[in-house]
Amino acid sequence: MAHNVTSQDLPENGEKIAKKDLSLPKLIAFGLFVAGAIASYFLFNDQTFGSGYAYSWLFAFLFFLTLALGGVFWTTLHHLTNSGWGVSVRRIMENLGFIFPFMAVIAVPLMIPSVQDDLYEWMNRHREVQQTVEADPVTYSDGTTGYEAKYSNQDTVKAHEPGGGYKSPTKAQLYATHDAHDHLLKAKHWYMTLDGWLIRIVCFFVFLSAGIFLLRKISIDQDTDPNPTTRRLILARKVSCAVMPIFAVAATFLALDFLMALDYKWFSTMYGVWFFAGCALNSMAVLILALSWLRYKGYLQTVTSEEHYHVMGKLMHAFVIFWAYVSFSQFMLIWYANITEETSYFLLRNSSDFVTLADGSVTGSVNWNVWSTLLVFLHFAVPFVILLPHYMKKKVKFVVPICLYILVMHVLDLYIAVIPERGPSLSVMDKLGVDCELLLTVQHNAYLGDIVAFITVGAFFVFVFLRNLGSANTYPNRDPRILESANLHN
Amino acid sequence: MSTTVKRVYGYLAEFESASHLYKGAEQVRDAGFKKWDCYSSYPIHGLDDAMGIRRSILPYFVFFGGSTGLLTGFSLAFITQVLIYPTVVQAKPANIFTTAAFFPIMFELTILFSGFTVLFCLLGLMGLPRLNHPLFASRQFHRVTDDGFFIAIEARDPNFSAEETKAMLEAAGGKNIELVEED
């Protein structure tokens, strides 16, 4: 064993990242984001391309949201479980989690009704009914009472571009149309309303942002305290007790409101857990990558060692299994119950648009079935087996490629969750400019939009991450347990 | 008075504290001994390195045990439900793509076989169960479950010598050095 790290080895005022290490990557990230944001503005407003780009943006937003949410999770969990091992990498967790408040910027386009009308059918129907239907109470001949619809504005309000704000129809209005689909919306009215949706999203961002801001502030204030005691340690633990339930609710319902609501007829009680598994697994991959980058630049050398890689790798390995467990449970329960309302999700994600034409040639662009099947092996089996030996988790040259690989698999995982909705929804809404009944995938250039959105949001994410990393010490140098963590042995 | 020749088990040396034991272990390791062990009433961090113990080969056994379980589970489900007696439920196909139904069995048997491999290979590698240990003959060794720290070097070790090993243990900080004989 190498010699023990003592307080003599730690600089009194901690370690900060030099400006020269940060300024160039920050500049590049910011430049990419600005260029991407300008491109996105035109793409969103494009007549034929814009509706598909909404899905690209949603996908990119959710991908980087999971990483930031995971940062919040690991910070909170670390305090909550009174952990000592990770004090020296805790600042990276805090900095990753503190991207979450900034992700609200990326969420703004998804709050605009003209973007939402490409994504969420239930919002369209709500806005349409609210603007065109007036509920008229009637008493039927058998004595029962009900509502009949009085229509107005039907010429101006389009079904798939209804306009309007965040005002939902009343239950009576939905009842009055006597439409089978509106019955479902009526039944879900207690949860699915436009103003409710907006209030929920705002609350999640406000409360969880406050939580991670507070935890990070408590930690950073300790760095310069001339009399550092355990007071902040215990305070952070108490705050975490409040933040963890907020995180659980926010992560679950952000997934439901942004992602599951793409198809309001479908529901799965495992969805929130599946989303959370993606958060925890992939943010750990990002944490390992960030740690490797900082160590490569010469920081965190005294307080971190192979042992930290080992612990973080083990957690990542555990969440590879957890992801598989949850995803498979969701699939298997739906598969064997075989109920029409539930299977739609997996039917769509196991379909292909390959068609054999009369002359024998095959046309089509995507076979989701292949990707869904590959996901099982590439997202679970491969990383599971690779991460088994201890040196795969300990050695930087092994663990860094594995982390990158896991992030690529997360792209695939979320891509399969979001993008297959695009073709069917937009073709039913008649927004593709092609005359067709049902298209599984939209035109090929929509994939380019996915890449643009991913790079734009990714650049923003990296920029904020670097900003957070640069704005504080690289590790909590006056934490009472920094030496315990520096001498970690497992 | 018995004339039976007793077999020598080895030297037993007591150490004052965990850190003395640790430093002593490093010296015994550097002297090139293989058949020896440290005894303490609680785990000591880093002692594995101080003793020069390599990582256990148990994980490799477990990997193959688990793989066997996986294959067993798959074979059990596939042979019975698809090959011998195709079971059609809700008009779902009975073929290799029915794996969703097999996974729970494959998962459970992987864990079961891994668990069994861990248990039995661990016992085997440790040489357990055994009814007695030669060191139990030493009276001072009884304190090992309370506050004693000991190093025992077996006579089976090729480096063992009656004089030099004793001197080496003394130099390493060992006290109350005792030649333990098997009962």
Automatic annotation (TrEMBL), chain A:
UniProt KW Hydrolase keyword: no
Keywords of the record: Membrane, Transmembrane, Transmembrane helix
Parts of the chain that traverse the membrane: 27-44, 56-75, 96-115, 197-218, 239-261, 273-294, 315-337, 370-391, 398-419, 447-466
Coiled coil ranges: none
Keyword Transmembrane helix: yes
PANTHER family for the chain: PTHR43044, QUINOL:CYTOCHROME C OXIDOREDUCTASE QUINONE-BINDING SUBUNIT 2
Name of the molecule in the record: Quinol:cytochrome C oxidoreductase
From TrEMBL, chain B:
Record keywords, A-Z: Membrane, Transmembrane, Transmembrane helix
Transmembrane parts of this sequence: 60-84, 96-125
Cited InterPro entries: ActD
Pfam families per record: ActD
UniProt superkingdom: Bacteria
Keyword Iron: no
Name of the protein in its database record: DUF3341 domain-containing protein
Organism: Rubritalea profundi
Source taxonomy: Bacteria, Pseudomonadati, Verrucomicrobiota, Verrucomicrobiia, Verrucomicrobiales
